[in-house]
From TrEMBL:
It comes from the Bacteria. This is MarR family winged helix-turn-helix transcriptional regulator. Keywords: DNA-binding, Transcription, Transcription regulation. The lineage of its organism: Bacteria, Bacillati, Bacillota, Bacilli, Bacillales. Residues 1-134 form the HTH marR-type domain.
């Protein structure tokens, strides 16, 4: 297990997530909620299906997170006038303020976590993770055909 990519990625993800959780504690938001809120911030008015895809989450998880964000007053949902089956997601003023106050916290967590690697290694790591993700998606897509 000490050399298993899946195991090591899982352990590292949990460590990063816990560090971000600790640093976001005063904002009453989890890293999972924060990442979805940040995706909304990046592209307001997105539909829930696209948001789930861009967040790397399944539909039920995305629905649960959006319901929580809405209950906290961080987002607003609106029916899509052109497709009644779709819901558009927008930031509230409170949500925008929270992202503005916390984006530097997330950036500092990444900076702290990658302090021991060079910029070149950091970029290589990002490229490798993206390639692994794309490979897994391709395998998954083939299995669903």
């Amino acid at each position: 297990m000490d050399r298993s990519i899946g195991f090591l990625m899982g352990v590292t993800y949990r460590k990063l997530s816990n560090l971000l959780l600790q640093r976001l504690r005063n904002y009453d938001i989890t890293p999972e909620q924060w990442s979805v809120l940040h995706r909304i911030y990046e592209q307001e008015g997105t539909i829930q299906k696209d948001l789930a895809l861009r967040s790397g989450k399944d539909k039920p998880t995305t629905t649960r997170i959006l319901d929580t964000l809405e209950a906290k007053g961080l987002i607003k949902k609106q029916p899509d006038a052109s497709d009644r089956r779709s819901t558009l997601i927008f930031m509230s003023v409170k949500g925008s303020r929270l992202i503005a106050e916390t984006v530097s916290i997330e950036q500092q967590v990444i900076k702290d976590a990658t302090a021991g690697i060079s910029d070149e290694e950091h970029n290589l790591l990002i490229d490798l993770l993206l390639r692994i993700g794309d490979t897994i998606s391709g395998i998954s897509d083939q299995q669903h055909e």
